[in-house]
# Entry
Amino acid sequence: MKLYVATRAPNPRRVTMFMAEKGIHDIESVNVDLHSGEHRSDAFMAMRPFAKVPALQLGDGRVLSEARAICVYLEGLYPTPNLMGAGGTERAFIEMADRQDDLYLFASVANCIRHTHPGLAELEVRQFADFGAAQGDRVLGVARHFDVLLASRKFVTMERFTIAGITLLCALDFAKGPMKFRPAEQGLQHMQAWRDRIAARPSASA
Ligand SMILES: N[C@@H](CCC(=O)N[C@@H](CS)C(=O)NCC(=O)O)C(=O)O
# Structure
């Protein structure tokens, strides 16, 4: 199998961190240069028509895309440690938390950065600065919600580390770069403490 990733890109990081948590080391990693537009080449788009990373090419040639779908596949192949839930109830609660991270926080961070950062002008054609700024304001509102949640619990959901923690960390670390968003500077001490604790896991620097 081959995993197509890109340096510093947050969505591939969701998969590489997931793999590191599971101790998966036998999947070849192929770097795609987003800044030179390699993901829009005919060869890459033949495999991944939406021109995005990550993408996982299976041994039989089929290609899986979307970070969460790739993780579902890997969870099936490498079931321990369980990161996506054992049994329907756990799976549902973990998926709920993961999708909330993704749809409410990650997406607003990505929209803010993609629409306001000059370095991403070539990826986001056209940029809408006002929309980007409004999405940045939304990040703070969503982060406040997480701060309240994390005041009374060690993990985002369940009593253990799951894929929802990976998605939240990747979103926060993405915001830390171009948006310079640091929870502590916004008075979100619980979220900062959670972030620092999770960032110390070896998988976070995989
Ligand atoms: N929903 C997709 C998002 C993938 C995505 O947006 N990937 C970014 C890198 S983090 C990308 O490939 N961007 C290239 C572009 O937008 O042109 C997933 O979950 O994998």
In short: The chain has seven helices and four strands. The chain has two domains: 2-77, 87-205. The domain at 87-205 is CATH 1.20.1050.10 (Glutathione S-transferase Yfyf (Class Pi); Chain A, domain 2).
